[in-house]
Design brief:
- The complex is a heterodimer of chains A (297) and B (387).
- Helix content of chain A is 68%, strand content 3%.
- Chain A is mostly helical and 297 residues long.
- Chain A folds into two domains: 72 residues, no CATH class; 214 residues, MetI-like (MetI-like fold).
- In chain A, a hairpin with a 5-residue loop joins strand 1 and strand 2.
- The mean pLDDT of chain A is 88.
- In chain B, 70% of the residues lie in helices and 1% in strands.
- Chain B is elongated.
- The mean pLDDT of chain B is 88.
- Chain B folds into three domains: 34 residues, no CATH class; 97 residues, no CATH class; 229 residues, MetI-like fold (Orthogonal Bundle).
- Chain B has 387 residues and is mainly alpha-helical.
- The longest helix of chain B has 34 residues.
- Classes of the chains: A mainly alpha (297), B mainly alpha (387).
Amino acid sequence: MTEKKWKIARIISYIVLIVYTLISLFPFLWAALVSFVPMNYVDENGITKGTDVMSWPPKIRVFEWPPKAFGAPLTFENYAKVFEVVPLYSRWFLNTVLYAGFITIGNILIGTLGGYAFARLRFPLKEVWFALFLGTMMVPAQVTMIPQYTLMVNWDLVNTYYGMVFPKLANIFGLFLMRQFFMNFPKEMEEAARIDGAGIGGTFFRIVLPNARPAVGALAIYTFLGAWNDFQWPLIITSQKEMYTLTLGLNFFKTSYYTFWQYMMAATIIMTIPMIIIFLSFQKQFVETGRAAAVKG
Amino acid sequence: MKPKTREAISGYLFASPVIIIVLLFVIYPIIMIFYYSFTNFNPLETQKFKAPLNPQEAIELHLGMFQTDVKSVDEIESWFDVLTFIQYDVGINLNEEQKEAILKYFDSQKLLEDFIEGKLDTTMTSSEFMTTYMKEEKDLFKKYKPQIVGLGNFQRMFNDDYVRISLFNTLLYTIIVVPIQTFLAVLLAVAANSKVKGVKFYKVVFFLPAITSSAAISMIFWLIYSKPGVLNRILVGLFGNFGYQPIDWLNNPNTALFSIMLMNIWSTAGYFMITFLAGLQDIPNSLYEAAEIDGASGGQKFWRITLPLLRPQILFVIVMGTIGCMQVFDQIYFLIENMRNITISFYIYKNAFEYGNMGYASSLALILFAIIMFITFLQRRYIPEEY
């Protein structure tokens, strides 16, 4: 291609990318802006006004102190108010941390053990189990959730952490991810350990697992993210407000405090920030796993 | 012990947790959903058998008399209708088999005698009560047993307008969202792959919606889409002179589903772009150079080289996108207020967990499963291997 053509292509690319960057970011920035605006403020004439976050343009003044939007000075007070207005919000946060945490630990343990077994060890019926797992990958959640729920009812685990976490402790995708990793793991290291007299368990825990950090990391991040954002299963398995996770809490918040946009957006941002932090710290794993998943398809 | 045996034992030790979880929570549910879909299974009925009951109060309510006012069985015998009593005062819905058994074996005499003697002012569960006073066939009342209704649930679907509406909405949703998000993702990936600066930045920004929960995204778009909200303000600013009136995007049945489709495209296109970008970077540059020597135009290179070599990624994105769209639930639950815009997975949820029609919901879930299998089969078959 001529140099001139390349230039034009690059300019078009930049336009596409920048426009879509704005489209991608705008909803987040708008929500963040609304979350920083107080419910009421005192204007220049000393009159207390309710802030109209629906007005347009938003009249953003960042070069004044304090910075203003919608005519009101920006503040962090809505973030504190969320915990006051909805006293259960901190409980929901804790529930979400526990829910996502236990599911992640379970998936790491069960996924690495299972992945190793299916990648390296020979045991009877291995191919049968594997084919069975492969066959269930396409089963939609709508099929499994009803019997899962009735199981939990029969075991009296509705509205308990056990009931929330138990069915999510292992995931076929996680198993496949770990199996794939262990299949490409150099055999020589394990053989060296065997010659030194280590058993299968010793080899796994002392040699294989410490070297599986990248795969375990990717599995952990994806599982944690999925569980943190999960909505449908917590919705089904909990009915008491004390057991809600943040996603459910947000829905409750929406139906009960629907006009308090500032609090709503603060609550939304609070539950999104941890995921953004995790994402920014582990970008590479996210992108790499996305790539691995595509190659498989 | 032989090393082979030892390896087999370790294999099962390592694999058993995942095997147990999958058997319990995937395989067993698949078997059960077939069974449920041929029954009128209702989880609320299960609760009724476990519900605490004070028999004395139930009988007082049934007779309209206090226990202390009743002296002999003869007085009340004619007032006592056993079937009505069990259905409405004990609260168990009876099927024909159970009704027959009650008429034959229920010991009304003993119950009324105990009532008069004041023995019944205690709390027991409904199933304990029934097993105490049934002389035979106690098993019928130990716990809730769903009735087999044969193909009843599947026949019912044909007369259910909501099944038609929700299936239509789901397919429409998939047909609109999947091609647009795939096309947009390819476009973004090609743009990011054309030797521009800051690719890392774009990747991070485009990925952001994918790591945000559907709940949070729904809340943000609820704000943006609301009638006095920012989207309408911008549109009025642009098109107000041409007579644009603010639209209540989410409460207007004509726009609600499309608004959610747009939100879905926004939240997934960037994620799939990463997939395509990885694919593009694997295409060797020499192919393009060779094409240029042969005098190929930019369009020809795109259609003849880029697209065919992206085939695995395109198939992956289309299949994953379809599965996601066919099951769309969270956004509908959060944002859709009218039943004209519901999707099938939302209708399944409603039936199972709000209306108490789990049998019916199970049969709908099976239908959804079959449709998803069929569509992905077609996609795998007809998205050609080679162009």
